[in-house]
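Appendix B, record 7
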Amino acid sequence: MRKIYDLYEELDAYTYDEISDTFTKISSTDEIISNTSKPTDSLPSLPKGFMEGGINQIVLEVQYRSPQLRKDAIAANNGYSCYICGENFEEKYGEFGKGYIEIHHKKPLKDNKENHLTTINEVAVVCANCHSVLHHNGKEPLKVEFLKEVVRKRMMIKSKK
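Structure tokens (predicted):
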């Protein structure tokens, strides 16, 4: 008996052969349908969901970040409010958001693989949402001041409505 699985990591369809205990990649859904003798809606062996939860071991390199730089930047920012949008997770979520804020390096660490000095003027204290938006466009993050101006203008427009 053959079962069809959709493995999230590959975003392709696979068949699983229980006898040989192997997965075989299928290039497209059309190929699955053309190789099936009955309509796909009559295949009771199809799972209802996606394969998840398995353990993958990965090896990665991370660049050192100074915990003291973080503390000093938060203190210089007057606390845990986002420099860009003003959001404070403790005010919004209570105890669950207390002390939660992220530090964004205005010059990406990837640009310098060696240990170097970073000052609090070279980082910004930002909420997770703004930090994600800063990096959303790909390899080169948006400038902090640019995004802050975009947010300010949008809030002005919203308040006029």
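Remarks on this record: The chain has five helices and five strands. Residues 84 and 146 are 9 Å apart (CA to CA).
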